Amino acid sequence: MRRKQTGEYTLISTVGEEARAFVPAPLPPSPPLVVTGDLRDSLDEALLELGRLDGITTILPDTGLFLYMYIRKEAVLSSQIEGTQSSLSDLLLFEVEGAPGAPIEDVREVSNYIAAMEHGLARLREGFPLCNRLLREVHERLLAKGRGEDKTPGELRRTQNWIGGSRPGNARFVPPPPERLNDCMGDLERFLNDQPERTPALLKAALAHVQFETIHPFLDGNGRLGRLLIALLLCHEKVLREPMLYLSLFFKQHRQEYYDLLQQVRIEGEWEAWLTFFVEAVRTTAQQAVSTADQLSEVLREDRDKVRLLGRIAGSALRMMDVLAQRPVLSVAVACQSTGMVASTVTKAISKLASEGLVKELTGQKRNRLFCYDRYLQVLAEGTEPLT
Question: pTM of the full predicted structure?
Answer without folding.
Answer: 0.86
